[in-house]
Every structure is written in structure tokens, then in C-alpha cells.
Design brief:
Number of domains: 2
Distance between the termini: 68 Å
CATH topology of the largest domain: UDP-N-acetylmuramoyl-L-alanine:D-glutamate ligase
Strand order of the largest sheet: 3-2-1-4-5-6-7-8-9
Number of strands: 18
Strand content: 15-25%
Structural class: alpha/beta
Length: 454
């Protein structure tokens, strides 16, 4: 029987769904871990402010923990908003009683500025809870409260991590997002060693729930048996992507997107499935043979959060003619076509809903057929391509697609160019998905056959 890993969050509820137990449960799901909750407080909040806090009695907090332990069990836990001294002490008792592997996120202040840990609870955090922590994950302002001095550099972070370790935590992670610069360095101090995890800083206001999701990711990975350095490294990379693809909702700090990995995996399967079905349609459509270019044909679809060629599914070896019929040289595969991938990725940057493309040969008659169908046609000229673009590997197609789209009054269905020496003239058909693209192409083929009969 497959083992079900179980992670527990002991934290507050965020009515806006961006932080607290809501963010934690999303993160647990993203890592394939069954999530459980102990609610410490109910907040009325949105992306702008915390309007109210209703704190649960510490006895109820303990009862929730006990109920889960008695029946389900806990592989790892994390704490978030604890708010009062009494809840901090109650949680510390239960962690000690049941020897729970716990990641402590010392939540003190909400993104909106509201206090989430009372002043008199800070000492209890330091003396009662931190000594029970397997990992503690303060950001720089939180670490400054704990150690009592300013942190202004990576060296300060390393010093603070060691000082917090002296309070009893096995491992200390200090998050470097509050330091200025284009890069973030997270510091881990564990077993006498200091580890640095460097990443690019994502400029975004969608950062609500960052600390919650980061600590939840570490807890989920520890629940699955990962070592602490590995768990911190994976969680650090995970949270950067969650920030990058956060949700621009509300009038304040939008939430991060901890489910981005799940969405990406499912959308990759959908892209592969669509390309597979599109290929079947192509091979069953004789009217498309007349559209085959000399360099052969390909079709591709990108995943929802595609960023690079490997995120675009296309036909390995392209589509060619075999005994008078269109046939694929290989199977649908991610990273199979650089040209189609670059075209799709360039279009997606301007319109994220356009995630598929197909190349066909150019002729005036085909462009005429496109216009008869009411398709929006745009073009670019390779003669206008800047020298530095021509000299940069892989830059021509992105430049051309971007140029054609920006010149067009409406977002185009068709982008063509007349080629140049060594470059065949080409038409690219854009669409929401691979099947949408093939349907457009089939109509073009049918119209072209009618034009050629006249």
C-alpha cells in the first residue's frame, strides 16, 4: 500500500486565501502530502488589511492537535500565526509531548502591517517554542526581533543564524528577501555548517503568503523524509516560482501561487494530448498536403507557464510527406522544435492565451485564403531585422513574431515573412491550442483547394 505522507499546519486562517492555513494546504497539496490543520485564530483580511482577529482558546488549539495525533498521526508540522503567549506555550507543550518534527515560521506581522504575534508572546517564542524547533524560518525583520540587533548584510544573517541556533533550534533558515539587490540569498545554519541558497529576486507585489508557503514546503519535504539542506534548497526554488506566477488580485499584495507546479504538470499533459490529437487530424487531412513547406511542417503547444523551449511540445523530426500523405517522423515530445517553440513563447509574452502554432508554406494564394476566412494576417520583413538580432542565435523568430504582433491592430491568427537568402518564406498559424490551430489550417486548405479549382 502506498504510504500517505502527512503534514500539519498550526496557524491562523486567512479569509483572503493568500496566507495562513489556506496557503499551507495548497503547498502541502503541491508536494503530494496530505495536509491537516490546527486553527489558532480566524482573521478577517484581504490583500490590503486585516480587519479583525478572533483568537481561539489555547485549550481548543491543544484539543485539535491531540485529535490529529491520536488518529491520523503527523510526519512533520509547521507553525504560523500563534498570536498569544498562551497559544505559543500550548503548541510548544504538544510538540514536546509528541516529539513532532516542527518547522517554526515565527509570524509576527502581516504584509498589510497588522501585528500577528503579541509583544508578550515574543519571549515565549524564544524560550518555549524555538528550542523545540527542528527548523525555524524567520525573515530578516523577524530575525532582528529574535536576536535584538540589526541585520544589514549576508554576514549579519550568518551571525544571526548561529545566535538563533543557540536558542535551541536544530536548523535556522534566514530568508534574505529584505536585503537590497537583484539577488536573494537565503542562509541555512545546520550542524555547524552554513549553506547559501542564491536566486534572482522576482520584482512583484504578489508576495502575500511567501513565508507561509516557504515553511510549509520545508515541512512537506521533511514529512517525505528529505534531509534539511535538500528541503530548504527545493523550498527556496519553489517559492521563487510561486512568487513569479502569483495572482494579481485585490488592491494590495496579491497572493503567491503555491500550486503553480501542479498546474504546470497538468497543463503539460494537456499540451501533449492536444498535440497528439492534432497530429492525428493532420495525418487524416489530405487538404493539408498542399501546405507542406520545403523545410517540412511542425505543430506545437506550450504548457500554461512555459518559459523555455523544453516547455513546448512539438513533433520530433517534424511532419513530412510519405507516399502522398502527411506523416510524422517522430512522436510528440517536449523540446522537439526550437523554431515553433520560439514562435509560441514570443506570442505568449504578449497574449498568454495563445499557446500553439504551426508552420506552413507561403504563397499569395494561401494568404488570400486566410483573409477570405476572416483571419487576422500580420507579417514581418527579414530585411528590417537588426544586425545584432541576425547575429544572435535563436533571436530572429522572437524578433519577427514580436514585430508582426506589435504592427497589427488586432492580435493576428497568421504571421508570415517572405524569407531571404537561405531562409524559406513561411506562414505561422497561431491559436489557443494545437487542435484550434489545425482546425484553422484545415479551413485554409479547403479554401485553397476551391481557389485552385477556379
Amino acid at each position: 500500500m502506498k504510504k500517505i505522507y502527512k503534514a500539519l499546519t498550526i496557524a491562523g486562517s486567512d479569509s483572503g486565501g493568500g496566507a495562513g492555513i489556506q496557503a499551507d494546504l495548497k503547498t502541502f497539496a503541491a508536494f503530494g502530502v496530505h495536509g491537516m490543520t490546527v486553527v489558532t485564530a480566524v482573521t478577517a483580511q484581504n490583500t490590503v488589511e486585516v480587519k479583525g482577529i478572533h483568537v481561539l482558546p489555547p485549550e481548543m488549539v491543544e484539543m485539535q492537535i491531540q485529535a490529529i495525533i491520536e488518529d491520523i498521526g503527523v510526519d512533520a508540522a509547521k507553525t504560523g500565526m500563534l498570536y498569544t503567549k498562551e497559544i505559543v506555550e500550548a503548541v510548544a507543550r504538544k510538540i514536546e509531548e509528541h516529539k513532532i518534527k516542527t518547522v517554526v515560521d515565527p509570524v509576527m506581522v502581516a504584509k498589510s502591517g497588522a501585528r500577528l504575534l503579541l509583544e508578550d508572546a515574543i519571549e515565549a517564542l524564544k524560550s518555549k517554542l524555538i528550542p523545540k524547533a527542528l527548523v525555524i524560518t524567520p525573515n530578516i525583520p523577524e530575525a532582528e526581533v529574535i536576536v535584538g540587533y540589526e541585520i544589514r548584510s549576508i554576514e549579519d544573517m550568518k551571525r544571526a543564524a548561529k545566535d538563533i541556533h543557540e536558542l535551541g533550534a536544530d536548523a535556522v533558515v534566514i530568508k534574505g528577501g529584505h536585503l537590497p539587490g537583484k539577488k536573494i540569498v537565503d542562509i541555512l545554519y545546520y550542524k555547524g555548517k552554513t549553506f547559501e541558497f542564491e536566486k534572482l529576486k522576482i520584482e512583484s507585489t504578489n508576495t502575500h503568503g511567501t513565508g507561509c508557503s516557504f515553511s510549509a514546503a520545508i515541512a512537506a519535504l521533511i514529512a517525505k523524509g528529505k534531509r534539511i539542506p535538500e528541503a530548504v534548497k527545493v523550498a527556496s526554488e519553489f517559492i521563487n516560482r510561486a512568487i513569479k506566477h502569483g495572482y494579481s488580485i485585490g488592491g494590495g499584495h496579491g497572493p503567491v501561487n503555491p500550486l503553480v507546479e501542479l498546474y504546470e504538470k497538468s497543463s503539460k499533459y494537456i499540451a501533449w494530448k492536444n498535440v497528439s490529437e492534432a497530429l492525428k487530424l493532420i495525418e487524416e487531412s489530405p487538404e493539408l498536403l498542399q501546405l507542406l513547406p520545403e523545410v517540412r511542417m511542425n505543430i506545437g503547444e506550450a504548457s500554461m507557464y512555459a518559459e523555455e523551449i523544453e516547455d513546448v511540445c512539438a513533433i520530433s523530426g517534424r511532419i513530412t510527406e510519405v507516399n502522398g500523405k502527411l506523416r510524422a517522423a517522430g512522436c510528440p515530445k517536449f523540446g522537439a522544435s526550437k523554431h515553433i517553440a520560439r514562435a509560441i513563447l514570443s506570442a505568449m509574452k504578449i497574449n498568454p492565451n495563445i499557446r500553439a502554432a504551426m508552420n506552413i508554406k507561403y504563397s499569395k494564394e494561401i494568404i488570400e485564403a486566410c483573409r477570405k476566412l476572416g483571419l487576422i494576417v500580420a507579417s514581418f520583413s527579414r530585411e528590417e531585422e537588426p544586425i545584432h538580432i541576425k547575429e544572435t542565435e535563436g533571436a530572429s523568430i522572437p524578433w519577427g513574431i514580436r514585430t508582426a504582433i506589435m504592427k497589427s491592430e488586432k492580435f493576428p491568427d497568421i504571421i508570415y515573412d517572405l524569407g531571404e537568402v537561405g531562409k524559406e518564406p513561411m506562414i505561422r498559424i497561431l491559436g489557443r491550442n494545437a487542435i484550434d490551430v489545425v482546425q484553422k489550417t484545415k479551413k485554409i486548405g479547403e479554401i485553397l483547394m476551391q481557389i485552385n479549382k477556379k
